[in-house]
Amino acid sequence: QARLVESGGGLVQPGGSLRLSCAASESVFYINRMGWYRQVPRKQRELVAVIFAGGETEYADSVKGRFAISRGNSEDTVHLQMNSLKPEDTAVYYCNLRTTRLTNYWGQGTQVTVSS
Q: Which percentage of the chain shows pLDDT scores above 70?
């Protein structure tokens, strides 16, 4: 089964930028959507941004205008450009891939810390 491999997390100051990337370890077919979720301790994982197979995108209200999701060179690769980062964006970010057959793939998570 394919794995999702994430990269790009780290420590950044408030107002800074980071770019997260996610790629499937092998080809995945029937992709419906790819996206990013985030989670902080003692809270539920929340959707940050998603891009559908047709190119449509959706964002959490808290990140609209600051984050941008895009596909890479292959349809099983996705990026998340995060600008104007705030301390409340601090979380573990998880990549997700969902197929039209409702199979979900998850990455291992990458830590994003926004702090001065």
A: 100
